[in-house]
Structure formats: structure tokens, C-alpha cells
Amino acid sequence: MPNLREEGAILLVSCYEQGHQPFHLASLNAMLRQEGYAPRVVDTSLDPLSDSTIRQARFIAISVPMHTALRLGEALARRVREVNPEAHICLYGLYALLNADHLLRDAIDSAIGGEYDVPLLKLVQALEEGVTFPPGVRTRQQASGAWIERTPFMVPLRRQLPALTRYARLQWGNDMRIVGYTESTRGCKHTCLHCPVTPVYQGRFFAIPQEIVLADIRAQVRRGARHITFGDPDFWNGPTHALRIARALHSEFPDVTFDATIKIEHLLKHAHLLPEMRELGCVFIVSAVESLNDNALLRLDKGHTAEEARRAFALTREAGIILRPSLLPFSPWESLESYIEILDFFEQEHYIEHIDPVHLSIRLLIPPGSALLEQEESQAWLRDLDAENYTYRWQHSDPRMDQLYERVATLVAEGERRQEDPALTFFQVKALALAAQGKDFSVEEALAAYGPREVLPHLTESWFC
Fold first, then answer.
1. Where are the domains of the chain?
2. Which pTM does this prediction carry?
3. pLDDT tens per residue across all 465 residues of the chain
4. Closest to 356 measured CA to CA, from 329, 332, 316, 334
């Protein structure tokens, strides 16, 4: 049986966590060290992973909380397999379990989804003792679903991770703030049909104790953080819990600001809380607006209408909080006309600064296990599984939309690479959309007519799923 208690025998790896110091490594690191293990922690988005470190490890766990992380994580797993074929490779996180059938063929040895901490710890212990793997661990020989049991939460252990100064900053005018990241809940009580949280958590969520969250924030403030991102799928799944944490944060660190992700439905239901959120230091809120097409919103079971999304923009603006939407403008239910309506809304309301251009190019992903697969009407546009890209293929009924997606995705990626003015990219996208209708559009005239722009509070790394 392998000795996994030696320094570096366990290797914890993050490939990408949206420009934040990886919470999912720090959380697991704390639990393993409490049990007497001495894992090495590497964030490959910033630091190289050497072959010697890989060879030393006997158990390698790679965090894959999102699609981009999974793409990078699988590539890393295949490299690990070549360098150290005897090591046990485990992928954990939302996308690990959804794509387990593909990953377990030859890339990895096990996958864990849901509340990963306890199953992963028990997997390590099972490997040491040579016994059957525990529930919650999916292998080639053992079928297992997501582990959705309450975790004995611990304060994340971050001291082995790269300094916060190496990650994304909050840019607010000319002010650049070091950003910390934490979570106050896991899972989500809502079941939006396209969301990867839905097939894993099935409408459940867990509140992380306030003292744990505040201790994690405190540790990051000591290391220079002046802004905190709450990375919960929805900060207001439990609004009372969230407000208690925000109040305690502001009481202890009145100069520290924060941002959070909150559902449109919740922004409307609890709109009376928005002024207090601003007073407590909330400078922007991310919300999954997705579309301004009521049919698309209904098909996704988003729980809000286009008009309600517009109201949420007005309510947050009135409260002095920036609403930064995430969008899903390429879906089977979006039309060329409704795509242009989205662009018109942001232009006419002077909200272009609120969005990262990447959101104009997001196309619906349908991973294995997606709730959308259960919808009978999906068969009209659904195609075969593209396992290597972790999604089912689908085709729009209007070929112009699939062509537009390809052009917009290329344009946005190139603009990001060149660090172009986001407003320029926005109007270039609009020119492509109108060209698909056979209409002319002057980007230069639109930029001039839009007028002066301000640098609204935002993180310096664009959000990717």
C-alpha cells in the first residue's frame, strides 16, 4: 500500500479558477492536513508543474469546477499519465462527474462531484489501506453519483498558494485593489435547466458557517486583500445568512469592498436589501441575465422575464450598484432579431461598460447529465455527444445564427488578445449581427454617438465558464 503521508505524495492541482486564488485547493488542503497528510499545492494558471513534482506524487487530485478548468485539467491528467503512470489521478468538481464516462476511459482513475472533500479524503485513506473505494467516488469499476452530504467545513488553508498579488485585481476608476475569494454557500436551490449545478446538486445547497467564512476573509485581508468576491452560485440562496456575513465583513473591515452573484429573481424579491448591500461595500453584482428573449428564458427555466431583467438593471442602478450580467446569447431559442435586441438594449441604456465582450459569444453547453436532455422538445435541435468537448452538439434552426456564433467568437477572442476597447468590440459584434441581416453599420459612427465612457468596477480578468 502506498505511503501517502510523505511530503508531496499527494499533489493538489488547479488549472483555472477565473483569475482567483483557487478556493477548491485551499479547502481540500485544510482537510487533508488536519488528517495528517502533507499535500503539495500547485496552481498551474500561474506556476509550472515540473515532471519531478509529478513523479514524486502517488495521488494527484485536479480541481475542475468549470468547463475551461476541465479542458485544461484533462490535458494535464494525460501528461501526468505519461510522466507517472503509477499515480492515481482523480478529477473533482462539478464537471468531473458529469464527464466521468469519457474521462475514465484512459485519462483518470476516479471522479468526484458535489461535496468533494469527504469522499476525496476517504478515497486517499482507502488507497492507503487497500480497501474498497467509498461512496461518492466514481471509477471504471464503481458507479457512483454525486456526494451531496453536508461537509464538515473548515477554514481554507491558503499559505502554500501563490500570493494574492498575482491574481486578478478589482479595477475601479484608477484604483486597483487586490482581490480575495471565498464562498458562503455551496450548491443552489434553483434548477435552471442549462446550469451544471442542477444535475449535481438537484436543488440542494449548504450554508458554510459564518465563522468559517469570516476567518477565511480575515486571512486574505491580512495578505493584502481589499476586495472580496463571493463565488457562490447564488449569494442570496439564503439572504439572511448572506446579509449577516456582509454586515460582519463591513463591521470588521469597513474599507473592504465585495461583489457577489445573485439571481435576477432574488434581486427583485429582495430589492429592499440593495441599498444596505451598497452601504456594506457591494460595488457590483453578477447575475445570469442570459437573454432578453422570453421564450429562451422560459425554455431555460430561468425564473425571470426580459422585463424583470430590465427592472433589475434599474433597481441596482438606483441603489448605486453595478449589475454585471452573464449572457447566453447563442441557444436554440435565440433568434438573429432577439440577439440584436440584446445589443440594442445595452447600447440604448448605456450599459456597454457593464459587460465583458466574451459574454456576447457564449454558446449553450449541454454536458452529459444536463437537465435539458430530459426535455422532449430538445430532440428537434439536439445532435450526438461530443465527449472530447464535454457537450452534446446542437444545431440552430437558422443557419445564420451558427455562422454568427463562429464569427463573434473569433472576433471577441481576438479583441481580448489585443486588449481592445470593449466598446469597440461590442460595436464590431453588432456590425456582424446586422450584416447577417444584410444591413450596413458604421462602427466608428456608433462609437462616437455612444459618447464618453467610464471605468466601472470590474475584475481585470474576463469571466469564462
1. 10-129, 164-459
2. 0.95
3. 578 999 999 999 999 998 999 999 999 999 999 999 999 999 999 999 999 999 999 999 999 999 999 999 999 999 999 999 999 999 999 999 999 999 999 999 999 999 999 999 999 999 999 999 999 999 999 998 888 999 999 999 999 999 999 999 999 988 999 999 999 999 999 999 999 999 999 999 999 999 999 999 999 999 999 999 999 999 999 999 999 999 999 999 999 999 999 999 999 999 999 999 999 999 999 999 999 999 999 999 999 999 999 999 999 999 999 999 999 999 999 999 999 999 999 999 999 999 999 999 999 999 999 999 999 889 899 999 999 999 999 999 999 999 999 999 999 999 999 989 999 999 999 999 999 999 999 999 999 999 988 889 999 987 655
4. 329
Beta strands in 29-156 (DSSP E): 40-43, 59-63, 88-92, 110-112
Fold for the domain defined by 164-459:
pyruvate-formate lyase- activating enzyme (3.80.30)
Say which CATH superfamily domain 10-129 falls into: Response regulator (3.40.50.2300)
Is 392:337 a contact under the CB 8 Å cutoff? no
CA dist., res. 367 & res. 387, Å (int): 9
- Between the two ends of the chain, the Cα-to-Cα distance in Å is 38
Phi, then psi, of 227 in degrees rounded to 5: -150, 140
Q: Coil, strand, or helix at residue 58?
A: coil
Measure the CA–CA gap between 360 and 425, rounded to whole angstroms: 10
- In degrees, rounded to 5, the angle at the alpha carbon of residue 371 between the alpha carbons of residues 368 and 373 is 65
Taking a C-beta distance cutoff of 8 angstroms, is the pair 29, 41 a contact? yes
